[in-house]
Amino acid sequence: MVPIPGKTIAEKIFSAHSGTDAYAGDIVVADVDFVMGQDGTTPLAIRALESMGVEKVFDPAKVAVVMDHSSPSPIEGVSALHTIMREFGKRTGATVYDVGCGVCHQLIPEAGHVVPGDLMVGCDSHTCTYGAVNVFSTGVGSTDGAAAMASGKLWFKVPDTMKVTYTGELQPGVFSKDLILALAGRIGADGATYMALEFHGPVIDELSVDARMTISNMAIEVGAKAGLMKADEKTLAWYEGRGDRAPVPVDPDADAVYAQEIVLDASAIGPQVAKPHAVDNVSPIEEVAGTPIAQGFIGTCTNGRLEDLKIAANILRGRKVHPDVRLIVAPASKQILLDAMEAGYIRDLVEAGAALVTPGCGPCVGTHNGVPSDGENVISTANRNFKGRMGNSNAFIYLGSPATVGASVIEGVITDPRKYFKGGE
Amino acid sequence: MTITAKAFKYGDDINTDYIISGKYKFKSADMEAMAVHAMEDLDPDYYSKVSPEGGFLVAGTNFGMGSSREQAPLVLIHSNTKAVLAKSFARIFYRNAINTGLPVVECDTDLIEDGDELSLDLEAGVLKNLTQDTEIPFAPLPPVMAQLLADGGLAAHFRKYGGFAVK
Ligand code: SF4
Fold it and tell me: What is the pLDDT of residues A83-119, one digit of tens each?
């Protein structure tokens, strides 16, 4: 008799949501627990709903639209798109997060719209972020999003899973951003195409939920469909008081079958920087240290959370941003802004010379709030450094941790942050 | 249906910011107007080369990596790109292409040079390089995707059946 193989987190979540015994490679039509769209993608989804002849969403409590990418609106065209989204909310009852609420990928888990064990889709590629809280969440296009909003269902190919284990111990001055950049450097931008990632190991267990989200957020940068982690006590504690559904943590079976397994020794990982114009163009910081920069950016769905602002504030407190550098800070949500104000981080950052912008995507996608000039180098905590990403294809974007950005904006050149962490923090 | 057109060849890892820069996706919801900017950071002449007579966009591995913007396949459709042929595709782009009705073909694009004349019959599964007088094999689409593409994309499929009619 052939033994029944165990399942990965992805296979279990798809089985539970499709009512089938799903394994990698199966195509299933599954129920989704939540659907999200942002201001760059929702207007097209609304148009797709119209062309489908659909007027209602399947469940207004399970649909949200977020104005974060270009918010507050910089031009009339965007204002019109925002109006379309507000009217959609009024018409269907879907939740609308308006200007100033924050980045979609912070708001959706923060509000408890998704809980461990859920399956959700969002019309934004970094929807994979909530894998950090044990949600199979994945980015889809606007038409897929519309189909899910209309029917509460979507077709999926159950993905193979790559198991990534971080052993050893995170060193002082090194953060979860460095862990995921190290993986991108190792496996490349298409290293996990069509696959789900499952992150394991003592290093992940030690990370806060904020820090875990940074890793899952960048799963898409290696081509993955999702970046899943187990729900542990920290996850469940984080969920206390959030949302109205009980988490249903999903662990992989001990005998789950993985398409590939990778082990990275975190003890040997130092600060990492992704160089222009690809996220997998990764170097240890030693190789790029000294590169002059004109702008620093701390924020985004990757590194705009409270812990990130704290890391940067701890470095910048009592110091000054270099006179040739602009530092832009965009907290990932209004709640984070309030918490960071209360903790004093915002004062630290602004006193050091930071320009604070509205919670949201900030200059990440290049529509407003800090488009670099021709030939300028930018050091950013974001997840993408593609040519033209911040709105100018003649600029050069480097990606690093909030500590790397903090240290670099002080010196005006890319700087190894570890000197601020001697002897640990 | 057989489509015959010229190949316009590019490299690996062409991301969605190259296909349509993020700075344009908010400018307008008018895909005709946006299509002029298709691929412009990589090749400013893409639109003027492809739009008059149509063309095949040929690329290497991981075509369409990056964002979920559906504007990417849409601007290609509106620039008169008949299909994208690549060694491999990024997942979201691939889905979006099928959902919006842009044919995508995974094949060995080393067998195609820039400027070659190609003919593609998706239903029959035949791709020919007329310039080199060769046939290029490719795997047929999984049935779900073939049906969505045949229906003209996911929205048209929904309109036709009132919901998901695939299983
Ligand atoms: S912060 Fe940047 S990466 Fe994240 S959702 Fe906004 S634009 Fe996308």
Answer: 999 999 999 999 999 999 999 999 999 999 999 999 9
In-domain check, residue B47: yes
Candidates B10, B13, B23: best to mutate against A (most CBs of A within 10 A) is B23
User: What is the tally of structural domains in chain B?
Assistant: 1
Q: Which residues of B fall within a CB distance of 8 Å from A155? A: 144, 164, 166
Residue B163 lies in a domain: no
The per-residue pLDDT for range B93-116, each reduced to its tens digit, is 999 999 999 999 999 999 999 999
Inter-residue long-range contacts of B153-156, CB under 8 Å, 24+ positions, other chains counted: B153/A143, B153/B98, B153/B99, B153/B100, B153/B101, B154/A48, B154/A143, B154/A144, B154/A146, B154/A147, B154/B98, B154/B99, B154/B100, B155/A48, B155/A51, B155/A52, B155/A143, B155/A146, B155/A147, B155/B99, B156/A51, B156/B101
> In whole angstroms, what is the distance from residue A198 CA to residue A26 CA?
19
What whole-number distance in Å separates Cα of residue B140 and Cα of residue A193? 19
Residues of A whose CB is below 8 A from B163: 150-151, 153
Q: Which of B27, B68, B163 sits opposite A151 (nearest CB)?
A: B163
> A177 with A381: CB under 8 angstroms?
yes
User: What CATH code is carried by the domain that includes residue B80?
Assistant: 3.20.19.10
- B49 within some domain: yes
Assess if residue B153 is contained within a domain.
Answer: no
Residues spanned by the domain of B80: 2-139
Give the residue ranges of DSSP H helices in chain B: 16-19, 22-25, 31-35, 46-50, 71-78, 91-100, 143-150, 154-161
Model-level pTM? 0.91
DSSP A225-294: SEEE----HHHHHHHTTS-SS-----PPPTTB--SEEEEEEGGG---EEEPTT-TT-EEEGGGTTT-B-S
